[in-house]
Each structure stands twice: as C-alpha cells, then as structure tokens.
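Intended use. Records like the one below are meant for learning the mapping from a protein sequence to its folded structure. Do not use them to infer anything beyond what is encoded.
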Amino acid sequence: MTDRWDPDHYDDALGFVSAYGADLVTLLDPSPDERILDLGCGTGHLTDKIAESGAAVVGLDRSLEMAGEAQESYDHPFLTGDARALPFRNLDAVFSNAALHWIPREDQPAVCESIHDALAPGGRLVCEFGGAGNVEAITEALLAELEERDYDADHPWYFPTVGEHATLLEEAGLEVTYARLFDRPTTLSGESGLRDWIEGFGDRFFTGVPEGVRADVIRDAEERLRSELFDGADWTADYRRLRIVAVRRE
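Structure written out for the chain above:
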C-alpha cells in the first residue's frame, strides 16, 4: 500500500500532529550530549525542537517528499529509510510521534527489534501513536460507505492495546517503563476539517477506488458523522493515543 504525502497539505491542514507532539519532546527530555533519532520525522518540526536541547538529532522518514521538505526547512540531517532496518547503532534515544501506526501489524516485531539494535544499552524509546479505538467512528463510517459501493476495504492502521505493543517490545529485549492509553479528542478546524484529514491520511482506504467515487465516499462519510463529530464550526476526531517509554537494558 502506498501513501501519498503532500508536505504543504500536511503542514497547513494537519499541523496539530507536531503541535501535540511537543509534549512528547518534554517526556523525552533530551540533553546536549545525546544522539537521538526522530523516527517518522515528517516535515521535521519536532526534530528541530529536539535539537534545541543541543542534542545531535537525525530525522528519518519513509517519504522522500516529507524528508525533503524537512531538509529544506532545517539544518539537521534528514534521511529516508525503513523502520524495520534502521542504519544506526549506539543511540541514546529513539523518538517517534504519530508514525508507528502506519506500519502493518506483521512488521511490528521487526520494527521493535530494529529499534532495540539501534539503541545503546540504557538507551530509551519514547513514542506515541494511535492506540486501540483510535478514530473508530471515522474508520467505521468510511468502511461502511465503501461497502455500500461494493468496495472491499480493510482497517488500514495498527492501533494496539497497551498489552499488545508492550509484549512486542519486551520480546525484542526492551523493558517498558511507562505505558498509557488515553483519549485525546482532536479538533479538525473548519467545515473542511474532516475532509482534509481523510485526504491527508486516508489513502489506504481508497486503493483501486476511482477519484470520483472517493469524493462521494468522503462526502457521505461526512454526513454520517456530522451529528456526532461536527459542532457547526469544527470537527472533532475521536483520537486515542498510546504513549510508551521503553529502555534497552543490555
């Protein structure tokens, strides 16, 4: 499955992603002598925030477009790469905000092992991504509209429970020291907010779906969700986030 990333749309319509991630940087608490990877760095805003501490930070993203935009905006190194095979060793920390849920469930063990191998003993993973029940109302509305049109679509993301993901990390040799699953209703600004969100993040629903049908699905999903998620001015996405800190002990 291929996700289309438009850095301008991401920053203009979906800037809340990095804004909410600022709190995760506080949890990371980077120090000037540390070597840190921002895994799934997007357009680099949080990479730059980490660098304000004086830490040596590199951003890595699967999308050439996103990493390229980050490199144009900031002086830190930005690379494209695969989270299942990280080209780093002896890092003090791996940081990841709103990225790991894009990786299929069957690849998650390899990602956890790759993070373990990238960290030095005592190094830490600080991450947040979609957890169990994340955007459930939006997902169900899109799948229902696609099914009505005889398109066979599946839930496209990895949204685990605390126990599910903690188990994978522990099996990879990382000790989970903090884990929390919590509701975080998220404002999608304006009448177009939900449509902007789907157009920015929802490509995987529409594999093999013509553009005209895609537009109809989004329109009718909006109508399904209007009474539940729209207040007359803005939409509210039913976000649930999983936040984890884990440490490589050996």
